[in-house]
Design goal:
alpha/beta; Rossmann fold; eight-stranded mixed sheet; binds iron/sulfur cluster; 2-oxoglutarate ferredoxin oxidoreductase subunit beta; metal-binding
């Protein structure tokens, strides 16, 4: 079960995205997947390169459209484990509409957001996750907008699995990805992933000082949505661990009527190449 390939990542040395790549590879192996059983779909941004760095099916999509592609892949072949991945700009700015609707749709996809609180690929602009007052070339006087809270939005949208981690905590991150893959429904895993080149505020040390690990609360109940929302707000969104899980709600695939479990390509109603050409000719 080898999820490494020969492609050398061109992320900056020290970028948090390296650990997320390693965590996905470890989690996939730990849950017993084979490379041909996994599809990694990514968006645009430094994080978007990840689909080319894992030995599995990959699709490097377009900005903000990770989730429509991932959901299409899953519906076309539900035998595949589908991991979608992108940055905070990709998922929480241009792609936010898709994120909210994918959450409430509850298709069986694991969505890993590499949250560095800045746009890295385009050389450092303020993102929806940047703090108020954050100065970059796009907000030289400091951002006057509030920071978007993806965990609160996910819970409000009816999420069945909400987790958060830190790229330096490989053990926790790997475990959460494993749990996300096993979860029957949509799983959101937001991962603090420092951009060492452009974000000089939210550094590794900053995250270490500000993160609140759920391990500190042994009585915490991740099945209680109200408790989860309160804890997120109490900790200013810096909570890490499995924050909320609802195993009682069925996934989208399980609710569709007449949906065959076999991949579309294996179903016998597929049209032949001749029939396809005939169909195309009708539209010429
Ligand atoms: Fe990582 Fe930032 Fe470099 Fe992009 S610019 S590879 S996010 S460190």
């Amino acid at each position: 079960k080898e999820f490494r390939n020969n492609v050398k990542p061109n992320w900056c040395p020290g970028c948090g995205d390296f650990s997320i790549q390693a965590a996905i590879q470890r989690a996939a192996a730990n849950v017993g997947l084979e490379p041909e059983g996994l599809a990694v779909i990514s968006g645009i941004g430094c994080s978007g390169r990840i689909s080319g760095y894992i030995n599995a099916y990959g699709f490097h999509g377009i900005h903000g459209r990770v989730l429509p592609i991932a959901q299409g892949v899953k519906l076309a072949n539900r035998e595949l484990t589908v991991i979608a991945s992108g940055g905070d700009g990709d998922g929480f700015a241009i792609g936010m509409g898709h994120t909210v609707h994918a959450i409430r749709r509850n298709l069986n996809v694991t969505y890993i957001v590499m949250d560095n609180q800045i746009y890295g690929l385009t050389k450092g602009q303020t993102s929806p996750r940047s703090a108020e007052g954050f100065k970059t070339k796009s907000t030289p006087e400091g951002s006057i907008e509030t920071t978007l809270s993806p965990l609160e939005i996910a819970l409000a949208a009816g999420a069945t699995f909400v987790a958060q981690s830190f790229s330096s905590d490989l053990k926790q991150l790997t475990s959460l990805i494993e749990q996300g893959i096993k979860h029957e429904g949509f799983s959101l895993i937001n991962v603090f992933s420092p951009c060492v080149t452009f974000n000089k505020i939210n550094t590794y040390d900053w995250f270490k000082e500000n993160i609140v690990n759920l391990e500190q609360f042994p009585d915490y109940d991740p099945t209680n949505r109200v408790v989860a929302m309160n804890k997120i707000m109490e900790t200013n969104g810096m909570l890490t661990g499995l924050i909320y899980q609802n195993t009682t709600r069925k996934s989208y695939e399980d609710l569709i009527t007449g949906f065959k479990p076999e991949a579309l390509a294996k179903q016998d109603h597929m049209i032949t190449p001749d029939e396809f050409q005939k169909l195309v000719a009708e539209f010429k």
